[in-house]
Design goal:
The protein has about 110 residues and is mainly α. It contains five helices and no strands. Helix 1 packs parallel to helix 4. The chain is elongated, with a radius of gyration of 23 Å.
Length: about 110
């Protein structure tokens, strides 16, 4: 599996070089062909591979040639409001403590 990912990465590198030579507006034809052949979905499934080297290579290929981030990284990012500001809890400061403090025992 690692050898196949290495070969795919080398093919995508050639496409990236061709894209740079083509100037503005050029696309990586090999990345496009991989995507058309549902290869991107197959690479994404490798994020769940038990071999960490395979996982890392798949993530590297997705980020470098398909502009995708690791799913786990996306889940860790703070959500943004309509202004592009991260949500803050408690007004951005220390969370407010209820008047009289917290009570964890039976109420009386």
């Amino acid at each position: 599996m690692a050898v196949a990912l290495e070969a795919l990465e080398n093919i995508l590198k050639v496409g990236a070089c061709d894209m740079q030579e083509g100037g503005a507006g050029a696309a990586n034809i090999y990345a496009h062909l991989v995507d058309e052949a549902e290869g991107l979905e197959k690479i994404e499934t490798l994020q769940h591979h038990p071999n960490n080297d395979i996982y890392e290579k798949a993530v590297k290929i997705m980020e470098a040639y398909f502009g995708l981030e690791d799913e786990e990284d996306q889940n860790l990012a703070p959500e943004l409001d309509s202004t592009g500001t991260a949500y803050s809890f408690g007004g951005g400061g220390t969370p407010a403590t209820p008047q009289g403090g917290f009570s964890f025992g039976p109420s009386m």
